[in-house]
Amino acid sequence: MTMNIEIKFNGQTKSLTVKTTQSLLSALREDAKAKEVKDGCSEGDCGACTILMDGKAVNSCLVLAPAADGCEIVTVKGLGDASNPSTLQRGFVTSGAIQCGFCTAGMVVSAKALLDTNPNPSRAEIREGLAGNLCRCTGYQKIIDAVECAAQKNNS
Amino acid sequence: MSFKDKNFRIVGKPMPRHDAWEKVLGNVSYAGDHEIPGMLHVKVLRSEYAAARLIAIDTSAALAVKGVETVLTAEDVPNNETVTKFGQTHTVGGFEGLYRVLAEKKVRFFGEAVAIVAAKSPEICDEALKLIRVEYEPLEGVFDPAEALKPGAYLVGEDDSNLICQYKVRKGDIGAGFAKADVIVENTYRVPQVDHAYLETECGSAWLAEDGVLTIRASTQVIEHFRGIAEVLGLPQNKVRVIAPMVGGGFGGKEDITVETFLALVVFKTSKPCTMTWTREESLLSHGKRHAYTMKYKTGASSDGKLVALEVDILSDAGAYVYLSPWILLYSTVKATGPYNIETVKVDARTVLTNNIFASANRGFGGVQVCFAYERQMDEVAKALGMDPLELRRKNFLHQGDALATGRVLEHAVETEQTAINVRKMLGEKTVSDKANILIGQGIASSMMSYGRMTFLHDTSRSYVSIELDGSVTIRCGVQDIGCGQKSSLASIAAEVLGVELTDVTVYFGDTALTPLAGTTTATRQLYMSGNATLKAAQYIRDNLLNKGAEVLKVAVEDLDLADNKLVVDSDPSLAMPLAELVKICASDGVELFNLAQFNAPAREFMDFTTGQGQVFADFTFGSHGIEVAVDTDTGKAEVLKYVSSYDVGQALNTLSAEGQIEGGAIYGLGYGMTEEILYEKGRALNANLATYLIPTAMDVPDIEVDMIESHGGIGPFGAKGLGEPSSVPSAPAFVNAVCNAIGKSLSELPATPERILRALKN
Ligand code: FES
Ligand code: FES
Q1: Which domains does chain A have, with CATH numbers?
Q2: Which domains does chain B have, with CATH numbers?
Q3: I need a surface site. Which of B241, B491, B520, B663 has the fewest CB within 10 A?
Q4: What tens digit of pLDDT does each residue of A80-94 get?
Q5: Which residues of chain A from 29 to 48 reach within 8 Å of chain B, CB to CB?
Q6: Which of A31, A49, A74, A137 should be substituted to probe chain B, the one whose Cβ sees the most B Cβ atoms within 10 Å?
Q7: What is this model's ipTM?
């Protein structure tokens, strides 16, 4: 069974035909061609697929595509681009928070949701806020640095 | 400030990585992101037995499903079995193993690939997989390497023994050594099989190019598997091309072939493009793991703390196929003593087939398991002598000019002692516990880990550098970038030598058709090998530029330098000429502005396996970790309060990147110490997902304080040493030493879970 949904995707309206059992992750990657959203497990365990859905960070692999009908979806590409990167993206680059980069898109989106609710988090709060996003490369430290640095920039 | 006087402009500075922007903007197309119009989806049918005879496979019902293009079994593979020297393109003896694409005769492990389906959609693949009828005759199997060695044991393969190989090292008279000892400490250490758990599972796509070349774009650490793939298909090697885009983590798990042959087979049979991505469960069940080891250590020491005898017995579980087990065992055998100078040494090591998932490369490659044993053992010996663990280590560390037990003299910088002193200092005074149920402990561990491949492999790498007419720089080098900054490091080297900025350099990498072959991204070898090749090529162009500059400006070549996109005259800055201008003059005068350089690692003959004497490694990276833990005696939970790490990095290419390697390595290793373990029931992995196979999260780990010594004594570019594997080796023993220090008991098994800590507390 398929159905049509309409989402606001990184600021633009998009219509997608999705299966009723399809995950939002699959709809974004396969139908919307949003390859920046990564699949690390399809089971809600790794956070690589994190997107903003109506402003909240969710694991898109755990959301059914039909449930996104009428929602606003933001991926890492919606946060900034080469000519106008977000402070978080800039922070990730300058802090050395990116190694293989496979966790990065989800990590930056989770960090964005964290800073939206807590603009001035402690390092412990950042660690807690990113606990659902696994990174196997960095040991997390430079990611925490990046979020801390972006928070300072945002607040100055 | 320039390359000339070694006051680097770029090298040794903290720099954002060359590849960071494309990643943070979501622009990188990883192997699983590539789409080709009309591509088929490929999925694997995997064995549900760890040991069984394959009687028959009926694929007819699956083939009849609408949308199914092909269903393939071992019969359909031109050369389903090849004998290969894994990971190796240079011919060497004694390290061969069977590579089998699809199960044949006997199934050897739970999760082994039995058949593949290619269909129009993943859903159709799933439907077809259910319709393949496989007739198995279940066999008893063997799951413990000690059992597998007993006479009459179940035979995993088709040979008459499960023993794959054995090595030994002998130094001096071990009996006389123990006779001299005032204390003798004997322990058996056990470490489990673990996974790499990179965030990107195995994936790729493949197609037939218009020129008839079968092209595979896959997540791999080794594009040079194109040779093995060609052999499987019976094609000439130059008709198979492998491309490795940015890899979403490797750690050794993508060193062996994963999706490549499946994809290639489908293209070979159908001439249609195809794609495949493994699920997390498949990834955990079917790629090579880090070997489980049982290690018996018996150490003799004199009362003043001198190590006089060490006897080691290593038993390694290779799992169901040979893969890299012999190589890994050799690493363990040579490194079994750790960075210590011990009077008499006897090491025996064996690796054995079982019906567990096959084991192969994993960051540290046999150096990690023995480090847990030798560093735990050092603390146990210190305890038996009533001596401070750092003091005992300092009495026994190897120094530059000393010989390993294999007779190999350490010619290059050895700063182990300094790193150990530094981590102890950085740890500082023990935190004072204010609760009766919280015990605080500190532990250190040191290690030696090679960088670069074994010297008898006669390793080489190639890199092509050119300077374009506008002064921008191009590198073509067949490195695989697995996230450690392989591409970025090469850019830094060329930028430094040719006087341009990092952003002026473009690096093409990882393509057997278009980039000169640079060997595997394994063994912590790319900065060392391809870094040196790139340095050599850039230096050639630099020399040409400076010679022409001297001629044009009529100054001595020694007076010239390249910096900030200019030809600079040291004695008269007003004469400086834009680099692009000099390049144009060179181009019109026919001066070569490109170079393809090859770097050859120092080559040696085979180690003598009858005596265990000879050179196996060119150089090592030495370092130490220090950890403070708080152990809750009610729950057994050990929280890491402090983590410090010190390395002699030789020369950091990019300090931000080097720090990132050291931090990431520490946490990768900490997972090994704290939580990670594949749990088995008769060969069936019970925790094949990331909810139950637990790797560290941001909440589980502390900040890490990093200390870098720069001895300039490495054999990489500018004196660099490698960090990828070394950074991870001593984490687990440092953690467990801290836990043991806290609770006053001994632990000899990984991971040191709360349950194991509670059990130790009760003993
Ligand atoms: S892919 Fe969604 S949490 Fe892993
Ligand atoms: S950078 Fe590789 S998983 Fe985070």
Answers
A1: 2-78 (3.10.20.30), 87-154 (1.10.150.120)
A2: 20-29+460-600 (3.30.365.10), 34-139+202-277 (3.90.1170.50), 292-454+606-762 (3.30.365.10)
A3: B241
A4: 999 999 999 999 999
A5: 33, 35-36, 38-43, 45-46, 48
A6: A137
A7: 0.98
